[in-house]
Amino acid sequence: MAATETRLLLLGSVMIFEPVNGYQIRRELLSWNVQEWAHVNPGSIYSGLATLTGRGELARHDLVDGSRPVAVYTTTETGRHAFARMWRAAMETVDLLSPLGFHTALALMALVPRDEVAEALSARLAALDAGVRRQLAEQGGMEHSPPHVRAMADLWMGLAQTEREWLVTTQQRVRAGELDLLGEQPSWVPRDDDPGWVMARDRARYLELIARG
């Protein structure tokens, strides 16, 4: 996974649960199957958190939870600004053959206000349409290209059409108030055995420990 996308994923996952310890982040990301769609090596998650701390985008708090030492992470203002910038770029950059940045941004869409999500979807749709127009212009001179190259171009156009349909539908859903975005009351409840319940209790305890200094 590219460094920028790793930063986006780790910053976003910390923002969801902060304060949160490294084991919890690792477990949560693996429950998202990031090792498959994002090609994240589970062992790299801890080093990624350390790297972001060194960049000043995360703050590490070394606490004693009961009798157990634990390191928990929160995002800094620098980290939140970096997340917002990278999220917007990932949403608006169209690369049909390498959509990982876009997919990463979608996984973290609930961390973004509704108006900003709507703007990013509109910008991506405009960028996609511009790319299709360029591709159509290039196809006008492909009559002498090998057949398999023209077949590849047909595949790209098909991918673009499928994504365009999805973008239009999702844009309509966002404007209609659907989906759960930043600052809104969730419309779903996790299962009783969801680890998030334990993480929420840990979060409250970590906040108290941090406040004590």
Overall description:
- With 213 residues, this protein is mainly alpha-helical.
- The chain has nine helices and three strands.
- The chain has a three-stranded antiparallel beta sheet with strand order 1-3-2, with helices on both faces.
Unreliable residue stretches: none
The number of strands is 3
Number of H/I helices: 9
Radius of gyration equals 20 Å
* Average pLDDT figure: 91
Task: Output the strand order for the largest sheet.
Answer: 1-3-2
How do the helices and strands follow one another from N- to C-terminus? HEHHHEEHHHHH
Q: Outline, from the CA principal axes?
A: elongated
The proportion of residues in beta strands is 5-15%
Helix content: 55-70%
| Biggest sheet features | 3 strands, antiparallel
Name the structural class.
mainly alpha
* Spatial gap, N to C terminus: 36 Å
